[in-house]
Amino acid sequence: xxxxxxxxxxxxxxxxxxxARDEVDRLLPRFTEAYQQAVATERAQRPRRRRxxxxxxxxxxxxxxxxxxxxxxxxxxxxxxxxxxxSTHDKIQAxxxxxxxxxxxxxxxxxxxxxxxxxxxxxxxxxKKPKGGELTGDERAANTALAKLxxxxxxxxxxxxxxxxxxxxxxxxxxxxLDLAAEVSAGLYxxxxxxxxxxxPVGA
Length: 204
Known about the structure:
Layout: H1 4-7, H2 10-17, H3 21-45, E1 63-65, E2 68-70, E3 77-80, E4 83-85, H4 90-97, E5 105-108, E6 121-124, H5 137-160, H6 177-197
Parallel strand pairs: 5-6
Antiparallel strand pairs: 1-4, 2-3
């Protein structure tokens, strides 16, 4: 590319290119076409190399929070489990965290928590389709009703993800920093909803 001062100075332009300005103007379209053809040919002959992670949305690399409990409205996160590798099964992580539940607690979860029976908690889990069979109409209706009850939890997760620190690649390897980032994001979600909707103070 010609520098602006060369392009605007006829004497410099002739010294650099050997052509006058009007000659350059006539040849410029041909130069542009030849350049584009050369670039296209080079790209066609050169195999595409994708850098590791290229084109992938930034996120916490293979790490995520497993347990998250909210109130019935989904506007307040009341418990956040420790972060764990994404390959860790939901039930195993829940048993490892062992969150305390008040007596006569009730809740809903997905099929990843099948077989999870903590003390003081009656957990409702969707009905699994039998192998080679189908769910009845009543069973599908029950699953739909449970899914609607779990919507507030999904909203809370979305609210936490407003903080970029829990969706971008986390590069701080210091002990406890990943859990701290998740806790701060949950606290900001609670604080926002406290000011927006009022109600029980955060942490009470």
